[in-house]
UniProtKB/TrEMBL annotation:
This is DUF3857 domain-containing protein. Residues 1-18 form the signal peptide. The keyword Signal applies. Gene3D superfamilies: 2.60.120.1130, 2.60.40.3140. Keywords: Signal.
Amino acid sequence: MKAFIVTLLCLCATQAFSQEYKNYDWAEKPTLHELSEEEANESSIAILEKYMVEYMVPKFGNNIKKFETNHTIARVHDEKGIKTHNTVYISMYNVIDIVDIKARTITPDGKVTLLNKDNIKEVKNVEEYGDFKIFAIEGAVKDSEIEVLYTLEKEYSAFGRETLQKSYPIKKLEYDFIIGDLPGRVKAYNAKGEFTSKTYTNSKGKQLTLKNIVPMLEEEYATYDSNKTYIAFQCFGPETNVTDSMLWNNVVTNITDGLFPEKVNPEIAKIIESILKDQKSDDFTKAYLIDDYVKKNYTIVKNNNEQLSDIDYIIKNKSASDLGIIKVYSHLLKAANVVYMPVITADVYEHRFDAEFFNPAALREFLIYIPTTSNYILPNRIDYRLSEVPPTILGNQGIFVNDKLQYSFYKISQKDPEYSRVVRNLNISFEDDMEYVKINQEQEYYGHWAMNNRAFLNLAPDQSIKEYEDYLTGSGIEDKVIKKYEITHKDMTQLEYNKPFLVHSTITSESLLEEAGDSYIFQLGKVIGTQSELYQETERVNPIQMQYPNRYNYEIIVTIPDGYEVEGLESLIIKKELLDEEGNQKCKFESNYKLEGNKLTIIIEEFYKEFEYDITEYEGFRKVINAASDFNKAAILMNPKE
């Protein structure tokens, strides 16, 4: 009888643990897959990428089990393709057990080489991403197929995210989310398809099937990482009823603990009196001075020491955790009677915040919003002071929390459309009987331009600061000699809203002037510095995302030497613009000139009123960007008068 009971228990356990991954395997006899001519011309192409995430509750016990299976088949056509696929990294993060790992190579002549499991190595902390199992694929030659299949048992986690789009094309992709009767859901992003319900051998779930996924390209003016096709999922314990509203409330309660103090720490009251002494009482000044004080006196420490979140310890030791430093701001702002709202969001270049699908991976950035000024404090950015939202956040959604712990979701936008702009005035003459060009330049940088310049000149190493002179005096002029270089309003602390960063310089250059017999060719366009170019040969994948709206205004006055006249001025006339459906300009580059006696005046206006443009607007946007580069190549001819 005892033996019978043991046998029965074993059978029950086998039934309880009959997971779907056990019913899945690769083909017993592999053969090469047929590809189109276009597919065969790729360096590599994934014929299949299959992901299987499976949650289940064992018959005995309530601990949720989680299994992840990955199966890939890739055709490699050249050395680049082989290099892309012939080393496999498997993250060991949260892995309880390796159920199985197998791999094989099928060469064009049908030879199959199986993975020698003795060659699987463990590597610790690979580039700070944690531990990995790593192995090399053997036997791969051009036009081979590399196939890898493994299953991992992982620690239970209620949330997950998986990036599906890669740097190579994927012919077919399947994602299986198997949860049986457990409560949960899954969502696909940037995908040309949706999850559909599916019944598996022993469970229920959902499957996403995608075909012909194009490679994600690292294109200019794009948030390509957050634009990749990816999925996010949730899976909770049996008979639970967890909603997104409950999850958001939990985040607000936990993260904002201590961020709305009922009483201000006594030491904070003394500090705020010292900070605000003899200063104006408007919220911008008070919040700016608080931000400046914290960043000059406190250090953020990256560890889990609980004391780093204790306000008394922080004030005494001037060290805090990421959350602890928010408490310092909260006490100071409350003491100064400045209304503030904590904001939780993500770097727009890494994650798109989704208010309708809770995903903790998108809760990476903490800001403090000052409603009366519509400006933001970035506690973890020492290079920033109270300002418009920075480009890494602009355009993302965020969760805004008030002092009653009520929250709302908003798209994080820029209030002042003219915040970031550059004004340049240049006076150009020709010296020493046309030996060289002399350029006197006055520049005004506003908004993010000013903020970045100040941060660089105050925080960068001395050698880099010296090299930065090239950027601030006209980049791209190889032989220039800097005769004068003066900077005004360099300090990080600038209490006047959007005070410009000023540069006054004088440079000379021989290379801008080229003899052509008795005439001279003047490379006038180069005086505006090196410009971005968008001459993309492949089809655009990403919509356009600029860092922020910005504007450039130039006035260039050229004194034509006595006894000379100019031709080729038509190259200075350029106009490219992108219009919306109502005919309004969204971005523009326009240059023109007037010639009065020996004074040639060129006026340039370039602006980008928006920072986001649809992919359908790429061609028009590209023409505007390239117009500045085209002007950079413009030249005029100065001929002796007859």
